[in-house]
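Budget justification note: compute hours in this period were largely spent on complex prediction jobs such as the one shown. Inputs:
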Amino acid sequence: MSWALKVEGLGRVYGEEGPRSLTGTGPEHGTSVSPVTGAVVAAWDVGFEVEPGEALGVVGESGSGKSTVMRCVAGDERPSRGSAYLRAYDDGATDVLALDDGARRRLRVDRVAVVYQDPAAGLDLDTSAGGNIAERLTAAGARNFGRIRDRAAELLELTEVPLSRMDDPVRTFSGGMRQRVQIAKALANRPPVLLLDEPTTGLDASVAAGVLDLLRNLLERLGVAAVVVSHDFGVIEMLTRRVMVMQHGRVVETGLTDQLLEDPQHPYSQRLVAAARG
Amino acid sequence: MNVLEIRGLVKSFTLHTIDGRTVGALHGVDLDVAAGEHVALAGSSGAGKSSLLRCVYRTYVPTSGRVLLRTSSGAVVDLAALPDAQVADLRGRELGYVSQFLRAEPRRAVLDVVARAGVARGMDPDAARDAAAGALRRLGIDERLWAMHTTVLSGGQKQRVNLAAGTISPPRLLLLDEPVSALDPVNREAVLSMIADLTGAGVAVLSVFHDLDAIERLATRVVVLEGGRVAAEGAPGAVLRDSRLNLEVAR
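Corresponding output:
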């Protein structure tokens, strides 16, 4: 099957961006900080494809560059180099990373949605659950009040948020419930690509399990292409079928998720899996 | 025409977290399985039987050699070198794997686990639920358990749920790793007869059984592995007679 999202040669350097900054960085040097320029090579030469109905995991420790990749693809940050293509935008013929800021923001309305670890990053906490979703719907051109409310209710039902809470400010919601509202908002305009950045990190174990079950069911049913960034192998194992391991800004291994867990190839992957499995 | 042709398969593990040493599991295995054929792998523990199945399913990355699968469309692909996404697409419909352990998905009902496997292979959701119910019934899983989470099941129940999920829509090549190890005689019988029916329906089966009686009953051919190499091969009766003593002594 053909990809819904394709990323090629993505790089993000904080500081001097020239080749001098790359020397001496990466897994074989044990650092992403350039010994020459002091620049941080947060991500370099990262590429992947995701098919509709498939979830790709991105794992690595803090500072491995996994969230940087996510933010660059989402448009929260401008990469130093690289390109990204969406099947749903110009049939994949245009590098969306090269679009101007306005065009990039519009992609976030209905082509690429993001669910952040912190619900406050994806929601206005002082607005109601229904209002947060309505904002995303009106951004896509919805104008009919009744239809907007119906769709918001439908999305809250989909994400198992009690409809009686629809008009309450999100600030009054528990952490798990806020995350469900964020997911409902992300799905509002049926985006073909969904980016999940540590979607259950920071929640209590039982609450995290509920959100994880919800995401699993949604990914199975909706046929979206998803990228799941997480340091938690339990999350990766449950949601993804393929995985990419990052260390010091570089991809050190890609594989099937069960293969990575049973037969990791790279020394760093073996260390990560051994640490997670105990 | 063979469904599976393995040529010169080598698998070794490099243990970076210990001292970087390399441990060999398979040292150049050649093996064929045709449609409607059941090839059983025999040999003592550590001979490489499970490693071979895992290399075919790509849970293990083959170190070298070829694992050629002729898919139902007639195309021949090398599973040892195929891109991950394509292997993932082949799993299920073309390539089934049933291990002795159910990787129990947390918080998911028994019937859902099996029906979902059918949906993943392109079955209509209602048809998948019906087929799942039929398979669970045939394998003797009490209907009262169907709505429960798989984590509460016994080892033998998990094993049967696993088999029901792995065979709900029969794959072209079925890999079986000890599918009856935890079963009582009645349930063991139900599982063995189901496997025999699959072979009869044209599925190519590559299996590992510790149980020599099961091999004798189901296999059309036996391949004996020793130290990661093929040591003997032939009709079950003859091979098992020759190696039965060795195998049982080794155990």
